[in-house]
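Revision sheet: structure tokens.
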Amino acid sequence: MRNRSRVLAAVAVAALVAAVAGVAWAAQTRTVVGVHKGSLGRMLVDVHGRTLYLFLKDKNGKSACMGTCKSFWPPLLTKGKPRAAAGVKAAWLGTTKRSDGGVQVTYHGHPLYRFSLDTKAGQTKGEGLNDFGAHWYAVSPSGTKLVPSSPPSGGGYGP
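Predicted:
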């Protein structure tokens, strides 16, 4: 009887550990969108503080950035409902199914992206670039594009 009680206790502990691990894993798959104050003003950022961009070629909440485009402009993907950090309107966060199968985070109807050359928090090297058929802009907490006071130097990367 004692051994049976120990086995049941061990099973109960294992189940509890698995449940806690499952909750922790689920929390890690949720993407967090925050706000950072940088050279362009207040802008949306990912959990690592990297600037989030919108693409003017996107229509009706659907991404127009596929193939080579997404290697320069990685979409902000999620496996769960995105979470809003302070300064982000949670009601404006959503998702859209991409044609390549991923689930991309949207804000105020705009699919969100990072720029591959923004390697540190707060960088905005993609701001205003004309890549892959349209311009890219950092996103403000009000869901609008941030426009630089002067155009970026250099060119884009796509056709």
